[in-house]
Amino acid sequence: MDLSTSIHTAESHTLYLEQVAAQDGSQTQISNQAADADGSQTPITCMDAALYEAAAYGRIDVLEQMSEDHFVVQLTPNKNTVLHIAAQFGQLDCVQYILGLNSSSFLLLRPNLKGDTPLHHAAREGHLTVVKALIDAAKRLHQEIESGVGGDKAIMRMTNEEENTALHEAVRYHHSEVVKSLTEEDPEFIYGANITGYTLLYMAAERGFEDLVNLIIGTCTSPAHSGMMGRTALHAAVIRNDQEMTARLLEWKPDLTKEVDENGWSPLHCAAYLGYTAIVEQLLDKSPDKSVTYLGIKDSKKTALHIAANRHHQDIVKRLLSHSPDCCEQVDDKGNNVLHSAIMSERYYAPGNIFRDNSLLWVTGLINEKDAKGDTPLHLLASYQVYDPFLSENNRVDKMALNKDKLTALDILSRANVKSGNISRKNILREDEKSFYKKEEQKAKTVTHALHSFSFSFSFF
């Protein structure tokens, strides 16, 4: 009998046994009922207590006194067979006894209500010897004719309702020896993602199971590496700030640095956001080319530099500029450059700190660059009523620059009419500039008056 015939026979046998059980109250299959939403009654199967305890506690002497039909008819509420129970509790002797029965192929392949086979149960609980016994039993099944896949590989590739294989379960619960055994049995097969989008490698990386990451990479021929939201195993390692795992993944597949999630975030974006300087260095050093530095997020087009500046991660800003000096020329979808991004932080800090340590940014064009609304960094600074000596006292800064509303930074301060502590309108100007701007302010009154009804909004990161 080939594997496909075995599975078909098992399904037919299941239907027959359920019909038998429905006619035989002594089997306790339908002794309980539950009400459905429509008020109808759904049968609830339940296993004979003596059989359940014998399988759970390893009482072969009790099993030997029961008929084989008793084994295949009896099901728990979750449709677990006696082999499911023995496998779940790691009772190797009971498992081997059951596998020696004529109905063993049916019990071996039979999924429960959640799609779990006995192998799923054994792998989930970490029972290595039981896992091996089940696979050995599957090997004795003839090859499936069409695909040529042996019974052992077929059962290992069976998925439950969450699309997890037994190997997924072993990885999830960090059963290293079981993972090693299963991967060595079927190293060429590419295990796909489960219903939540987790592949084996991503699952191991996200949970911090470095030994499993090494095992999967070292054993599987071409393991899938995707995860939730389109992330990769490298994203997961970076987010965990796991430098050793990051190094291993970069050694295995350097091109992972360029893979982005469904929102366009690369591992470098994540490291820049979280402030993981050492991880940023790893990603920059191992990336096959410099393109990773210039990648922009899907909707906003913000680069890792924009994010690092906005999050106040000055060391990362320096490292990004050292790696790709011209990345400072990039702007986001609203025309904001690195200095705009630094000012638009939720927690204000002096943007001059970024420039003071990075001479590559000391260029007039960057300091006075306008965003899509025509606002220079100084306009943004004025809109927040914040004083920064680097911009306020720097001769490179064009303090008369007009935005698209024909307002200077001084106009914005005048409109705000806010004074708080040391922060006031005069702070943005040097003493020797006050008389000049007083005259300019008089000239601008006509424009300011014409625009007094406008409301202004500024984009925050």
Query: How much helicity do the residues have?
Result: 40-55%
Order of helices and strands: HEEHHHHHHHHHHHHHHHHHHHHHHHHHHH
CATH architecture level-2 label of the domain at 1-147: Alpha Horseshoe
Give the termini distance in whole angstroms. 64 Å
* Proportion in β-strands: under 5%
CATH superfamily of the domain at 1-147: Ankyrin repeat-containing domain
Largest sheet: 2 strands, antiparallel
Radius of gyration, CA atoms, in whole angstroms: 33 Å
Keywords for this entry:
461 residues; 49% helix; two-stranded antiparallel ribbon; repeat; Ankyrin_rpt-contain_sf; Serine Threonine Protein Phosphatase 5, Tetratricopeptide repeat; single chain; ANK repeat; Ankyrin_rpt; elongated
Describe the 3D structure.
49% of the residues lie in helices and 2% in strands. A hairpin with a 5-residue loop joins strand 1 (32-35) and strand 2 (41-44). The protein is mainly α and 461 residues long. Mean pLDDT is 83; it is low at 1-31, 418-441 and 443-461. Helix 8 packs antiparallel against helix 9 (128-139), helix 16 (243-252) runs parallel beside helix 18 (277-286) and helix 17 runs parallel beside helix 20 (304-310). It has a domain at 1-147: Alpha Horseshoe (Serine Threonine Protein Phosphatase 5, Tetratricopeptide repeat). 41% of the residues are buried. It has a two-stranded antiparallel ribbon with strand order 1-2. The protein has 28 helices and two strands. The chain is elongated.
